[in-house]
Design a protein that fits this description.
Length: about 200
């Protein structure tokens, strides 16, 4: 999802690029690329950025010249909260209580850092834990029944869908990155086997 007016609204709010990235839990390079049209972002991240800037998502999706000429959008009636972090916190509590781990509640970059700083065995254990967590969530949600509940707010539905849809693609990427860093034959073979198990 392109956000051509992200830079305009960030500057209008007086927030630096690095500060916005920090608040959103993103890399500065990522925000730079989104602002310059070199990449889009997923709907969850786009909504988080809109929330942090206190604007409607549609304001970020307008071309910058349209944002300058447009009538100002009404400000939200209530202070905006970075809901992604709230959802992650609740999911972490639920998963830790039910499964004993909560890697599925972590953002992609946080998981990457965790795997980069650990051993190949830890990377495999993280992926196995995520598999258990995603299985629990699918069972708990009745294979999508919860996601079809009309009373479920759109931001919660979107968050839960993104968590479920991240498996196994994210896990394969985590294992492939760990395999690329691994120097031992044993570790490389174990990581390759773990990737095959996810396919």
């Amino acid at each position: 999802m392109p956000l051509p007016a992200l830079k305009y609204w960030r500057k209008r709010r007086g927030i630096g690029q690095a500060e916005l990235a920090r608040r959103a839990g993103l890399r500065s390079e990522y925000v730079f690329r989104v602002e310059n049209g070199r990449r889009g972002c997923n709907p969850e991240t786009a909504r988080l950025l809109a929330d942090l800037l206190g604007v409607e998502l549609q304001a970020l999706r307008r071309k910058p010249e349209d944002a300058l000429d447009a009538m100002p959008l009404p400000e939200p009636a209530h202070p905006v909260v970075a809901y992604l972090h709230v959802h992650q916190a609740y999911l972490r509590i639920i998963l830790e209580g039910a499964v004993g781990s909560a890697y599925a509640a972590m953002g992609e970059r946080e998981l990457e850092k965790r795997c980069e700083g650990g051993t190949w065995e830890e990377a495999i254990e993280i992926v196995r834990a995520r598999k258990r967590e995603i299985g629990y969530l699918r069972d708990a949600m009745g294979v999508g029944e919860v996601l079809r509940d009309p009373d479920l707010t759109e931001d919660v539905r979107s968050f839960l869908e993104s968590v479920l849809e991240s498996f196994p693609d994210l896990d394969i990427r985590l294992l492939a990155a760990a395999r690329g860093r691994e120097t031992s034959q044993e570790g490389r073979e174990a990581l390759a086997e773990a990737m095959r198990d996810l396919l």
